[in-house]
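[Meeting: bench + compute handoff]

Bench side (C.D.) handed over the final construct sequence. Compute side (W.E.) agreed to return the predicted structure before the next meeting so the bench team could plan truncations. Sequence as handed over:
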Amino acid sequence: MSWKIGEVLPVIKQNVVDLIPEEELIDKLKRKDEIIVKYGADPSRPDLHLGHYVCLKKLRDLQDIGFKIIFIVGDFTAMIGDPTGRSKTRPRLTEEEVRENSKTYFEQVFRVLDREKTVVRYNSEWLAKLTAKDVIEIASTYTVARMLERDDFAKRYRENIPISIHEFLYPIFQGYDSYAVKADIEVGGTDQVFNFLVAREIQKHFGQEPQVILTVPLLEGTDGKLKMSKSYDNYIGLTEDPKEIYGKVMSIPDTLILKYFRLVLYYTDEQLKKIEEHIKNDPRGAKAKLAYEIVKLLYSEKEAKEAEEHFNRVFRERKIPENIPEYAVPVEGKNIIEIVYEAGLVSSKSEARRLISQKAIKINGEPVTNIEAKVKPDGEKIIKVGKRKFLKVVSKNGS
């Protein structure tokens, strides 16, 4: 295939932070008929969010150009845990946890990527087969001094926070993945540059042409400060309820509106200028447009309209939404934590306890302050969790 560099390069570079080195990419485009793009993801958590979407959208751009996308599921490396950005050793996952998390992974990934044109590989295919001799050979490609140049390792070393030997193996094994699939380009967030540079060294060590590094910006979460992550509870999940997505987008700081339009919705410079004016004159209206368009992107226009109507009814008009789910409680009552957990309004009982301490769980508008509180089905009882989740308590016998 003959690549028209003047046409494909602007597409490749859109919304990209690093392209290292660009001249090597141009050289590859001139020489190679097939360009292999590697993207690796550890299924450490089963849910993907808008931060992942930014990366997946860039992969889709490259896929549409005609590049070959190899999606590597880090089932082996997930059992080590990526130490990137970590202030302490990440808990290791079991094979069962990795397998469980992988189940819903691709259902979400293929909402963005073309399933038919995506090659899926698991890095246990090659990493699990390495002998002790092989691991020593790979490990010899990098020094401890070079590893300690990495910010998170350097910080932990200075502060006498333990660094386990197996954590040093993570970037080395991730780099070996690039060698195993003969990657020409690797795509990821800006926090992955160190790992990608290690991969280049490993490819060179084994006599392979090194990959080009392509990074996209990290998307801050709803708090406006930290990168979007389920760990920070500031994420907007790709498969969350449309009404929840809409409400979460409406909660982001105004300073992030333009960035979300650019990275998630791919607005052009001309469109962004108009949005910038919209933000100056009507920030809430601009944010409402953003929320509507993101729900439409992930679901449909119909669900975007329903989410918008729901939000306006609940938050602008301060009304309880229609058709809220019901939860049956015995006449003697049931513990509030048990109710919100079993009804799926919280992901864990510890989250419920935390929300109660923050006065974020209310019954008929009154904050719950006692974690031992029982809710009885006497009269209308509406439980509200956070800003957007509602539950109606009814009697178990239907009365």
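W.E. noted at the follow-up: The two ends are 70 Å apart (CA to CA). C.D. will use this when planning the next construct.
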